[in-house]
Write a structure and sequence with these properties.
Elements: H1 2-21, E1 26-30, E2 35-39, E3 45-46, E4 50-56, H2 65-70, E5 77-82, E6 85-86, E7 89-95, E8 99-103, E9 106-107, E10 111-122, E11 125-126, E12 132-143, E13 146-147, E14 156-162, E15 165-169, E16 172-173, E17 180-186, E18 189-193, E19 196-211, E20 216-229, E21 232-235, E22 238-241, E23 244-247, E24 252-254, H3 256-295, H4 299-306
Length: about 300
C-alpha cells in the first residue's frame, strides 16, 4: 500500500515539475526519450495585439535541474503548437535547445519565430501582409506551406534562416510581380524539394544548395552566394553569383559547371575589352605624337617631303 501511495505521489510530483519545466504552456506528456508539451492558446502570453510563446529546454529551470534528474526528467523537450487559430500577431521563441513543431495552425496576423534548435512548420497558414516576416532556427523545415505577400501594394520581405540546415519541402514561397523579396540563408545547406520560390528578388546564401527537378526559382534577380550547388531550375534574366553579375537565358536548368563557364567567358571578354582599350590608348598616343611633330614643322618643309 505504501508503494502505491509513493508511486502516486511521485507521479503527481513529476507532472508538477514537467509543467514548471515547460513554462506551463499546456498539457505535458512524458515519453521514453523526450517530454512533449502540447501548447494551448489560453496558456500563451497575450496582450492587446500580440501572443508570445516562450518555449524553454530542460536547462531553463536551474532550481529544478537536480530534481528533474532524480525523477528521470532530464530529457529533451518538444513543444507542439497544433490546430490553433491565432487572431493576433504571434511571436515564438525557443531557448535551451528545445524543439518546436507547428502544424495545422492559422496565423491571421503574421508570425515571427526565433528558435535556437529544431523547428518544423507544417501545413499552416501565415498571413504576410506586414513588411517583414522572419523565421529562424538552428535547423528549420518548412513543408506543405503556401507563403506569399497578402497585400500587393506594400513591399514584403520573407526571410528564413537556419544555422545548420534549411529544408523547403512541398511548398510555395513568394509571388512574383507583387513587391516581394525572399531570402533563404543557411550555414550548412539549403534543400529544395518539390517547391517553388517566386518573387521580384531571391537571395540564397549557404555553403551548399540542393534541389530536385520539381523545384523552381522564378525571379527578376537571383543572388546566389554559395560554394556548391547542383542543377537549379531557374527562370531569371540576371544572376549575381558570389558578387559577379551574369546575364542569363530565362527558364533553364543551370548547374554550377555551366555557371562557372559563363564566368570564364565573362572574364575572357573583360580581358579582350582591356586589351582593346590598351591598343586604342597606344595607337592614340602614336597618332598624337606624329600629329604634334607635324604641327611643329614649317608648312614648306612638310610640302617638300610630300613632293
Amino acid at each position: 500500500m505504501f508503494n502505491v501511495i509513493k508511486k502516486f505521489g511521485l507521479n503527481i510530483l513529476k507532472k508538477d515539475v514537467m509543467k514548471i519545466m515547460t513554462n506551463n504552456l499546456g498539457k505535458v506528456v512524458e515519453e521514453e526519450d523526450k517530454i512533449i508539451c502540447y501548447v494551448e492558446k489560453k496558456k500563451c502570453k497575450e496582450d492587446k495585439y500580440h501572443y508570445t510563446i516562450p518555449c524553454f529546454g530542460n536547462a531553463y529551470q536551474y532550481n529544478y535541474k537536480e530534481l528533474a534528474r532524480k525523477l528521470n526528467l532530464d530529457k529533451p523537450i518538444c513543444y507542439i503548437i497544433e490546430n490553433i487559430d491565432f487572431d493576433k500577431r504571434v511571436s515564438i521563441f525557443g531557448y535551451n535547445d528545445c524543439e518546436v513543431i507547428i502544424r495545422n495552425c492559422n496565423f491571421e496576423y503574421g508570425l515571427y519565430g526565433h528558435i535556437n534548435s529544431k523547428c518544423t512548420i507544417d501545413n499552416s497558414y501565415i498571413k504576410t501582409f506586414l513588411d517583414n516576416t522572419s523565421i529562424s532556427a538552428k535547423n528549420l523545415t518548412i513543408q506543405n506551406m503556401n507563403i506569399k505577400n497578402e497585400l500587393v501594394y506594400s513591399k514584403c520581405h520573407l526571410n528564413f534562416y537556419a544555422d545548420n540546415k534549411l529544408d523547403i519541402i512541398d511548398s510555395n514561397i513568394g509571388r512574383k510581380k507583387e513587391k516581394t523579396n525572399v531570402t533563404l540563408e543557411s550555414g550548412d545547406g539549403i534543400n529544395l524539394i518539390n517547391s517553388k520560390i517566386e518573387s521580384d528578388a531571391i537571395t540564397l546564401k549557404s555553403k551548399n544548395i540542393s534541389s530536385n527537378e520539381k523545384s523552381h526559382l522564378i525571379t527578376d534577380k537571383l543572388n546566389l552566394n554559395v560554394e556548391e550547388f547542383n542543377d537549379l531550375n531557374i527562370d531569371t534574366p540576371l544572376i549575381i553569383y558570389n558578387g559577379q553579375s551574369i546575364i542569363n537565358k530565362q527558364n533553364q536548368a543551370l548547374s554550377q559547371e555551366k555557371l562557372l563557364l559563363k564566368l570564364k567567358r565573362l572574364e575572357f571578354l573583360e580581358i579582350l575589352k582591356k586589351l582593346k582599350e590598351r591598343c586604342e590608348k597606344v595607337n592614340n598616343a602614336r597618332v598624337s605624337k606624329i600629329k604634334t611633330k607635324l604641327d611643329n614643322q614649317p608648312l614648306i618643309k612638310v610640302l617638300k617631303k610630300d613632293n
